[in-house]
Amino acid sequence: MAGQSAVAAAQTGNNPFLRFVAALSTLAGWCSAAMIVAAVVITCQMIFIRFVMNGSTVWQTEAVIYLAIGSTLVGLPYVQRLRGHVNVDLIPLALAPRARYVMAIFTLSLSIAMVAIMLWYGFEFWHLAWERNWKSDTIWGVRLWIPYAALPIGFALFLLQLIGDLVAIILKIEKPFGLEET
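Request: output the structure for the sequence above.
Response:
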């Protein structure tokens, strides 16, 4: 990837909005990592209870599933901030700087629209679970609005990071697709 450092995190400059978004995305990344660690600890505890103590487990499997899904959704803005997603830059490399800029604005705007729609429906789904007091069909009977909260939280933070990325490109704090002008 031409012109990119080993870790190409989103640039913030001295812009307070971009620094705030970067801090939120980093916090989300730490929360996501904590959820993964919690899922690993719970899995180890479940193995110990089942195979060493010969006991039954009630809540562990369900908790690990919710934590894994939650960590994925809450971790979205952090991955976007670090540019950790799969990146194919063949087309941006072939474009002139102005066309690359237009393409970056277009793709970020389209991404923002799609994530906003997902946020809307994720919030609606979470609110339905909250309003109707849905519970899982397991013995544990977890109130589903708790794990479903990862949908609106994760997508809201992801949307905020995408908006920050768009602002950084418009203000010329960051280069489109992280590529230097050729």
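Residues 16-52 form the longest helix (37 residues).
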